[in-house]
């Protein structure tokens, strides 16, 4: 895909980019003195950094590589990913965000495990942590795969070597700076990827000749159904809704940023603006995939490489280098956010309650160790589960199955009991994991087993058990 001279240039730029991020993490590390600094960015984040870190986290490697490939191979029906997503964003912003923020302020929360423990007792921390480790380790591993694909295509590195190299570099960077470094690096990376995707979108439209040209080409190829928004099965829409969309309600990285904002107004404005931007960028990537097939008329057999073929088709090599940086920014800005969210669960919900540590410095050390634990689990998953979007859907399905019902019901309804919450978590998570291991019997996705069972158990046990005294 790239000749030797181009590979040398790309390799040099990629190395410089990683060195820059490492130096920035080292610089920010000097101001990280406490557990709150590392995990919550001192709870003082203003609106612009908050917007850009939300965007950086929401638009990752799966967006540029996975969604663009889906647009190329499956067509406009893939926009349902973003239709379901914006629906979830609106619900969270209107009904959840204020409640989440006020609870976080009142109880100085760091993780969703703090909430479930308060609502359903300390025993609820364990299924909460397990659910999040499934999701965040899978999503972090997805970014390792994305980095490996970049290194494979640009430098010719073996995929396994690329995954391990990405693992090492991202682990070091996240270990050094925690959430504070993640957010301030996202100011840069969120800007890069936002501008880059928008520019690419309009350049592709320009070279494609507009939608009428795309329609004509699709008709000529007898694939006009690819341009239909309804070119997707109801089951696929349901899976996107229950996994990628509903997961927004229980995303620990989202809750942490809501708590890290300096006040409620900042949290609300930052979330609204950033999520609108993120959904628009995601929709643009699917459109770029569609336009590349029927506008640019690219014949691509290895569809995971759609992004690379598109940028080489419409840009000269110097701008191709820039677009590789856009892709790296998208991947890295998501990976380190997932890292710190998963690590916070281990440090805050496993180590802190059991070791009974009061020292901020000790907890800071354990937070860094937790980053290493998450990195190893994520590495294993990235080597075991193929497919970027599949990896993300698998992780989110486990988390939604275990946590969505007890968290959402618990936020707005006092009746669910502690025992009901715990049974709901374990039954939803356990059944989804077993269904995944069995290979989706009868073609039924694990989320369609785990989530209904979790809801049923929550309601049945609640009405059969004695009402607890309200804790929140």
Automatic annotation (TrEMBL):
Annotated membrane-spanning segments are 6-27, 47-68, 80-97, 129-151, 157-176, 188-209, 229-250, 271-294, 314-342, 363-385, 391-412, 419-438, 444-464
Which top-rank group of organisms is this from? Bacteria
Under the heading PROSITE patterns, the entry gives: NA_SOLUT_SYMP_3
Tell me the protein family, please: Belongs to the sodium:solute symporter (SSF) (TC 2.A.21) family.
Matching InterPro entries: Na/Glc_symporter_sf, Na/solute_symporter, Sodium:Solute_Symporter
Q: What is this protein called?
A: Sodium:solute symporter family protein
One Pfam family this sequence matches:
SSF
Membrane topology term? Multi-pass membrane protein
**Per the annotation, which location comes first and is thus the protein's main one?**
membrane
Compartments (UniProt record): Membrane
Query: What lineage is on file?
Result: Bacteria, Bacillati, Bacillota, Bacilli, Bacillales
Key words, A-Z: Membrane, Transmembrane, Transmembrane helix, Transport
Q: Does the keyword Zinc apply?
A: no
